Amino acid sequence: MKTYLECIPCFLKQALFAAREATDDERKIKLILDAVASHIPDIPLDSPPPQTARLVYGPITEITGVSDPFRELKEQSIQTALRHYKKMKSAVESSIDPLRTAAGIAIAGNVIDFGSHQHFDLEKELTAALEKPLAINHYESFRRSIEKARTILYLGDNAGETVLDRILIETIGKDTIYAVRDIPIINDATLEDARKSGLDSVARIMSSGCDAPGTILDRCSPEFMEIFRTADVIISKGQGNLECLSDEPGPIFFLLKVKCPVIVRNLGAPKGGMILKDARL
Amino acid sequence: MKTYLECIPCFLKQALFAAREATDDERKIKLILDAVASHIPDIPLDSPPPQTARLVYGPITEITGVSDPFRELKEQSIQTALRHYKKMKSAVESSIDPLRTAAGIAIAGNVIDFGSHQHFDLEKELTAALEKPLAINHYESFRRSIEKARTILYLGDNAGETVLDRILIETIGKDTIYAVRDIPIINDATLEDARKSGLDSVARIMSSGCDAPGTILDRCSPEFMEIFRTADVIISKGQGNLECLSDEPGPIFFLLKVKCPVIVRNLGAPKGGMILKDARL
Fold it and tell me: How far is Cα B40 from Cα B145, in angstroms, rounded to an integer?
């Protein structure tokens, strides 16, 4: 997916939010906005938005010295999600279709996203997910692919959401590799966040090798690419991964919440919509 | 009022919206965003946001050659508002407090604003205005000041809103000067828009001399300043005028809809709130 013109004001909005997490110094925040603005002419519109993340988030570290401004928010998100784990697990276990329920919960978990929007109510999302229909519903294809699959590559997105991903992985019960970002970027999950979410007990956790808030394949490690090319099913969480992989062939299923107008237009689904999309359909 | 850091991403959002009104050429729009971004380090945070309008809207004219991108939207807004004139006039005439009803209608009309937000439903706003309480309610002071006043200076804001302002001016029935922007800027009313709204039959229309989307006093004409300093009551419509005049002493009443988070914080009123504020209280 390309970068749309609407993404440009949004990059500055994201930079402001992240800068405020890194510092209270208004003067430094203004310098960060100035620096991000100076990069706007360099933004490649033919690349997916996560490609631009370094231009947006790099100045925050350079100017404040803070390399992980979302550290605290990520920790809170994981703790909040862990508090919902038991109830959601019960909902799956008592469901007439546990896979469908677990997929809905994992999709709802994608609401934890401090990049594209900053206000959400996880409890409300999770409750709604148990009843709400999918805006794009390729569940039957998902179910059949999962049934046949021996190996699953699961592309994580945000810290906290990871706990809800764990429920889907447990429900699927197959050999799963859970890939995370190589370094802290926005509130995306890293190896440490995945471990804190208990994913190490249900999957093999690995870094994709990519430092962007999305799986940009030509910045991923050879080890990851080998798995990406051979996995029977790829579960791709979130907008960032969709933006990077929407044109890829292969057995990819995109699970996400629609959080911005660009994705609304791209998928033809409403804002807030829950998506389970087979990349091949 | 100063410019807040949140205004900065919003300036780019406004530039994008306005650029799209001026041209369909995505390449030119990107050049406009690049140009606006290059001005971000020059934005004076100690000045009100309307001071920055030239940096935001200037590149649109320079790059597209279009000096009034909102011309068509302004015309549509006036026509839409004129269709509501009769019904709103009747509502005022049958009200137990015509001045209060007319003030509410004029405030609701401030929703027509393609700068701070771009989606609204005038009919819904006007209907709600007839029942909805004011979020800041200095109506008693307003009523008393209007009763005593001989001369009123009315600072217009957006084209279309002008038609609803006319109802308030007719209801007040006193000697009124209606001041508009000197040149087209965003969708703010000019002399031509005021005439199309029928204001010339109920007030003396004049330019404030200011080319910004707000009344920046040191860019206003001496003729306007003489009236500004001597009018018994000043009715100031909209966010842009509030941003420029919030620290002014004098018999100013701010009538507006709260449309952005910066005004929410500044006034302590909710987004969407209807404001009738005495500057002296």
Answer: 41
Distance separating alpha carbons of residues B165 and B241, to the nearest angstrom? 15
pLDDT 10s digits, A152-183: 999 999 999 999 999 999 999 999 999 999 99
| For chain A, the helix, strand and coil percentages under 3-state DSSP, each to the nearest 5 | 55, 10, 35
Question: B5 touching A, CB under 8 A?
Answer: yes
- ipTM of the shown complex: 0.88
Residue A117, pLDDT > 70, answer: no
Rounded CA-CA distance A69/A54 in Å is 14
Q: What is the pLDDT of residue B54?
A: 83
Other beta carbons less than 10 A from residue B42's beta carbon: 9
Q: pLDDT per residue over A94-116, tens digit each?
A: 999 999 999 999 999 999 988 76
- Asked whether the beta carbons of A18 and A5 are under 8 A apart, the reply is no
Helix B71-93 crosses helix B122-129 at what angle (to 10 degrees)?
Answer: 30
Interface residue A16 vs chain B (CB under 8 A): yes
Q: Residue B11's closest chain A neighbor by CA?
A: A9
Tell me whether B13 touches chain A (CB under 8 Å): yes
H helices of B7-110, in order, are 7-22, 26-39, 53-64, 71-93, 98-109
